[in-house]
Amino acid sequence: METWGAQHAAGGRLPPSLRVLRYHLFSYLRTWRSSLTTSFLAPVLYLAAMGVGLGSLINHHVGTVDHVRYLSFVAPGLLAASAMQVAASDSMYPVMAAIKWIRTYYAMLATPLAVKDVVLGHFGWVTVRLVITSVAYLGIMAAFGTVHSALAPLALVAAILVGLSFAGVISAFAATQENDQGFATISRLGLIPLFLLSATFFPLRQLPGWLHPLAYATPLFHGVDLCRMLVLGQLDWVSAGWDLAYLVGLCALGLVLSRRLFTRRLVV
């Protein structure tokens, strides 16, 4: 009894947003096995299929891509793309469920927690998921021999920023929805085409010139570019600074939008 009381008291001293994060962590401890595919199996399959399978044909017939073998070229892009997928997944159905189906966020707001605490706790949880997935992915990349720079660990930061840049905007969108039909549209017309527009699988110069401005406007392109420079050791400070500024700015915008639209939906 005393132990429980001490734990409860310690939890009460946590900042409000960390209490929300702790709820997400406790929930994840019951369902973590279902995430093994996205966190560990998917990276191996992606790298094996695209990097080793397709890459062997490209290396044989074309040679290197941007002066590196194709597996080394595509692996950093897949790191950024994986972060996008994880963040988007955790910002669609879980947000709608917490608002409309199981109404977890309403229960939170019945306590001294505020909307900003709910939003920050959600962002904190997405960050934890991105760290887990990105660390696993980078470790698998190292096992495949695709890490060529001591700067590679900084690619984890880039991947996290990519994920959060999507999480904020998609969470804000999810907070406005009455059903899940819009999520399929986001996946089919948004996330999937980004793989082809963001230099994930081939250099941007392979796209028609009129598509380049569209690619530059996507956060995934900037994440892929930054991850690739850091992992391959081909750092261009001007490009890296622009990529970083873009991603940080979009993360901030998503946080502001999420707080505003969460408030509009949750505060009656």
Rg (CA only):
20 Å
Question: Approximately what portion of the residues adopt beta-strand conformation?
Answer: under 5%
The residue fraction in helices comes out at over 70%
Unreliable segments of 5+ consecutive residues: 1-11
The quaternary structure here is: single chain
Output the helix-strand order: HHHHHHHHHHHH
Verbal overview:
- The chain has twelve helices and no strands.
- The protein is elongated.
- Helix 11 crosses helix 12.
- The protein has one domain (16-266).
- The chain has 268 residues and is an all-alpha fold.
What's this model, at a glance?
This protein is mainly alpha-helical.
Any key phrases for this structure?
elongated; disordered N terminus; 268 residues
Write the layout of secondary structure elements.
Layout: H1 2-12, H2 16-31, H3 36-61, H4 70-89, H5 93-101, H6 104-109, H7 115-143, H8 154-174, H9 181-197, H10 212-216, H11 219-232, H12 237-266
Helix pairs in contact: 2-7, 3-4, 3-7, 4-7, 4-8, 4-11, 7-8, 7-12, 8-11, 8-12, 11-12
